[in-house]
Amino acid sequence: MSEISHHDAVIIGAGPAGSAAATVLAEHGRRVLVLEREKFPRYHIGESLLPFTYGPLERLGLIGRMKDSAFQKKYSVIFVQPNGRASQPFYFFNRYDRATVAQTWQVLRAEFDQMVMENARAKGATVLEEVTVTELLREGKRVVGVRARHRDGTVCEHRAPITLDCTGKEAFGALRQGWRVKDPFLNKVAVWTYYKGSKRECGVDEGQTTVAFVPEKGWFWHIPLHDNLVSVGVVAEGKYLSRDGVRDPQAMFQREVGQNLWIQDQLSVGAQTGPYHVTSEFSFHARHCASEGLLLAGDAFAFLDPVFSSGLMLALKSGVLAGDAVHAGLAANDLSPARFADYAAGLRRGIENMRKLVYAFYQPDFSFKKVIDKYPDAAGDITDCLSGDVDKDFTPLWQKFREFVPLPDDLPLGAPREQEIIS
Ligand SMILES: Cc1cc2nc3c(=O)[nH]c(=O)nc-3n(C[C@H](O)[C@H](O)[C@H](O)COP(=O)(O)OP(=O)(O)OC[C@H]3O[C@@H](n4cnc5c(N)ncnc54)[C@H](O)[C@@H]3O)c2cc1C
What we know:
Blueprint lengths: L2 E4 L2 E4 L3 H12 L4 E4 L18 H6 L3 H6 L3 E3 L1 E5 L9 E2 L12 E3 L2 H14 L3 E3 L3 E8 L2 E8 L5 E5 L2 E4 L6 H5 L3 E3 L6 E8 L12 E6 L3 E7 L4 E8 L1 H4 L7 H9 L3 H6 L4 E10 L3 E3 L3 E2 L2 E3 L5 E2 L7 H21 L9 H22 L5 H7 L3 H9 L8 H8 L14 H6 L1
Parallel strand pairs: 1-11, 2-3, 2-12, 3-8, 5-15, 12-21
Antiparallel strand pairs: 4-7, 5-6, 9-10, 10-11, 13-19, 14-17, 14-18, 15-16, 16-17, 19-22, 20-21
Helix pairs in contact: 1-4, 1-9
Bound molecules: flavin-adenine dinucleotide (FAD).
The site of flavin-adenine dinucleotide has 34 residues, from helix 1, strand 9 and helix 9.
């Protein structure tokens, strides 16, 4: 028989969502166990933070650590046409306080995720690395914990009244529940690598994220990191990137470098370093946020195309909110799925705002400039959404956008499973 341990909450995955939820629960005095398959520090893509990551980082007690870190400071985002013509930078400090929210960071995830995970440990969470969750344990329909394989090969049962799926885009629990829904429109491929010693801006613009266009609504991210490293990746439809039979990631990437003069110029000095990475099908949503004994957070709940770097902000925010909601449920001795309705509805509202911006971005004839030329005051709202201020009411902005492009309706997703059955 396998060993059994008991906790207030079991969290699968020690990425930003899982570690944030663990920190909050531990601070509330809860016995929380986090199971992480990898040994940290581990590589992860997703390096650009949004200003509105500030709130969750502050709640986790990490702002001081971030300020003292070597992470590259980021104040803006800029868009560059294939001919090298750049937009005005969208400076976050035109809208928010420069000393706090308006200054954010570009992070090497190996370092950032380890810091967030160690913080959960320091606050009292038990985090076990190199432990792979292989199964959700059930009693009837209720999830009562997980079965996991530890590094030494032993298989253990870790039981709790609630299990949080924070497994990122692998969405361990969501997949097993059959809850994963592809986004109907956002089906892209990304190829990326790193450059050392390539060109970068200076002063306040040194850490800006650049979104640089290639044909057919493809785009590069150019994210300056510390240690003179730059993360550069191209995102586009698979059939565009692989046109003329090109399948090799390096060949795909290097061909696109030639499609944007600004990217070509930035990478004309310095050296490419490390492997070329590829991923596809990275936008999806979970049909439900919770069922009896199970709750989703971070990418496991929803993940949007990375063009506006919303992933970490949403992962940290959902982790914090999930931690508070689970603590309240434990205190009330009621962890029924319905308790998580507000948690999910709030997250979905923010995701839908960001999703509208992403959909508009990918429409063939759309540009922010066209909207701002007609409605100069829209620049403020656009900057707010690009900053991750996604809980704001953007109805007036979307009305303006709809004069230029169709925008998607909200997806009727995310409600707790129980609630759907009742209604
Ligand atoms: C191409 C690309 C570019 C991106 N760029 C950005 C960006 O610039 N800015 C941004 O904010 N976001 C970006 N993202 C998104 C960002 O990477 C994610 O939103 C973020 O990592 C989500 O955090 P998480 O904690 O939900 O999941 P993760 O960070 O993926 O963490 C999940 C953890 O769960 C563990 N795990 C998985 N399965 C198991 C298991 N069975 N047992 C135990 N442990 C398990 C994994 O090892 C992992 O450590 C990008 C994503 C992609 C694909």
